[in-house]
Structure formats: structure tokens, C-alpha cells
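Handoff note, outgoing to incoming analyst
You'll be picking up this chain. Sequence as last confirmed:
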Amino acid sequence: MLEQLSIIIPVFNGRHVLIQALEILERDARDAEIIVVDGGSTDGALEMVKSRFRQVKVLEVQNHGWAHATNRGFEIASREVLLTMNSDLFPNRLALEIMVSRLITQPELGAVGPMMFNIDGSRQWGFGTFYRANWYMHTKPFQINIIHGACLMTRRDVLEKVGGFDERFFFYNEEFDWCWRTTNAGLKLEVLPCKVVHVEGASSGRTPAVQIEQNRGSLFLLQKHFPHWLVEVTRSFFQLLGWLGSGLDTRPDFRQAWAEIEDLCKRRDYLHTRLPLSGRGEVKFEAHLTHIENDFKLSLSSSDPEAELAVASKI
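Most recent structure output, in case you need it:
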């Protein structure tokens, strides 16, 4: 069944968890296509994949964020079922088979996800208290409005209908946006009664840029999908937080970040970010799209130079 599956893992550093995830996939998903999309890791993650996991495809890209890396992986994937997973996610064969089976037998579904657990076995409360999927230990598929981007499985025909992730988000909020568009297209989302381990936060960290992006992305998401009054209420709240943080935060770099949040709220400029976006926005997918821009290098994880393929621009 997993021969129908392509697994895309966007990576920027996080070598210590990526190696564990790939070892699990090497054991439990050898018949799946595995693609690591590296956005310029500096901790040896890319070299580790190439030297230790010869069956893994590696796509080297410029770092334009999670949505961009995931879309690029989708574009070169060759299978009909597509999973994007964080490098700090530890899946298992049973969970993968349950998700693939559900997707290919239920065409009304746009995407599915698993129940996620912490490494100590406790339930992980993604999206906070008000996320209904957190309230139950599911024994059957449970329909929801959003699936965590740390482990989201969809089909190629869904991408052709809905599009990929919006690359105007660098990280955070892109799965909210994509799931909103998917349900608006008449497709359903489900959490399934299967378990995976997610080492939450191990693939990212709290930095000033992350703080700014989380607030900026939230406002842009609201601007795309929600009433103007809600955008304004949230903007005013974030502006107040920015003003308070810029004066009270004891960390100089975070004080500057709070000042930037206050400024973008004043200007209502929710597309301005210090992070390098790709400029592509909502990416459209054609049937079996495989074109790739010329800032990419695709290779098999092999020391054999003949295994490497430089990919020229076809756009």
C-alpha cells in the first residue's frame, strides 16, 4: 500500500531528530518515496542524509520557508498520495497505512492526519484547548476543520483542485490557510484513530524572527478569510502587545521584534517580513506537474556523482 505514497520532509537544520525520523522510515516505509527538501541546513543535516540514507531523494532549495519547501517536494513527488511531515515526527507503518487507505477509499476527503503524542506517551494538544480533536482518544475517523502541518496527508488530485500551500507564509498559519481553502472547495478533513510521536518544537525554535512571523502570519490569515472587524480587533491587540513588549522585554533582540510587530500593525502591512519569501503566493498544481526552478539541485542520497542531477529551469 505504501508504494502509492510520497513522503516530503522540509528541513532546515534539526539533524538530531531528522536522523531518527529517517531511520524509522527506512524500517517502516521502505516502499514509499521519501524526499528531503533542504533549505540550506548548516548543521550537517544534508550531508548526513546523503551519506547514510541512499534511497532518500534530496532536493536542495533556497530557504523561502516551510510552505515553499513543501510545495517543491510535492512538485517532484511521483506518487498519488502525498504526506508532508516535520523532521521531528516519528511515524510508524500502521499509522501510514491507515491514512493512505482512508484517503484512497474516500474521495470526498481532502486530507487526513493522525493523533499526535509526545515522546513520553502523553497526548499532544496541537492548536490549544479549543481544538476539538484534542478532546477525545479517537476510535473512528473524526471530522475537523484543520490538520496539523507536522503530519498532513493528501492526494495529488486535491492539490490540483485546491492548490499548494500559500508561500506568503514563511512558517506558521499555512496549514490553517490550506485547510480553510480545502473545506471551502467542498472536501472534508479527518483525524484518524492512529498514533504518531511528535517532538514538538524540535524542528524549530523561538527567535525574534519567529515571533514576528507568527503575528504577521496570523493577521494575513485573518485578512484572507475573516471579516474586517475581526482583523481590526486582532490588529489592535497585537499592536498593544508590540508596544508593551518593546518597552518591557529584557532581551534587546526581542524588544526590536516587538517594535516591528507594533509598526506592521500600525501600517496594516501584513505582507511585509524580514524573512525571504519566494514571491509565488498560492501555488497552482497541474496534472503531474514536475517543473522546477533553477535554484534547485535534486540528487539521490549517494556518494556516486552519477546519481546527482542538476535540474534546469523549465518555467
